[in-house]
Amino acid sequence: MLNRSRVVSCLETIQDLIVVSLCIGLFGFMVIQLRAMFLSLLPPLNFKVFTSDILFLLILVELFRLLIIYLQEQRVSIGVAVEVSIVSVLREVIVRGVLETHWSQILAACVFLLVMGVLLVVRVWLPPTFSGIDPEKLLSQRSQLVSTDKSFQFHQNNSHLEPERIASKS
Predict the structure, then answer these.
(1) pLDDT in tens, 24-71
(2) Which of 108, 103, 98, 59 is nearest to 82 (CA)?
(3) Considering the entire predicted model, what is its pTM?
(4) How far apart are alpha carbons 70 and 16 in whole angstroms?
(5) How far is it, in rounded angstroms, from Cα 76 to Cα 129?
(6) DSSP state of 99
(7) How far apart are CA 53 and CA 91, in angstroms?
(8) Cis before 135 (ω within 30)
């Protein structure tokens, strides 16, 4: 009754529509934020608010880029997600001020940033799982190939024993 591929295709289309609506909403919010940022340039200039607005706009741009990558490649980019996390933490530290923040929060932010940095470095060595390559399938094919090669080599190496086995049975 239900064709699985048709249901999956329909659900993927609905998901794409949701992501497109998120993109449109995010773009509209970025325009509103940009307007507010330029209005904050009017005297009296509050440098902390202006810096916070710029960093928040950068976070929104990175989130928009994450959604665009998702629409193009049907995957969430680890690198962009980590970059958004790093900029978000740095924004909070800059807006609050390092001197006004408790030392344990600064230590937690440093550890978090260190872990995010390690993730950025490690992701380079991760295999590309969403570019049409299924690692489990690739591993399965490789193990089948190895077992086929071993079987072939076994039969090739023991082919001289076949006449002896046939003679011993008769």
Answers:
(1) 999 999 999 888 888 878 788 777 778 888 888 888 988 898 889 888
(2) 59
(3) 0.61
(4) 9
(5) 11
(6) T
(7) 9
(8) no
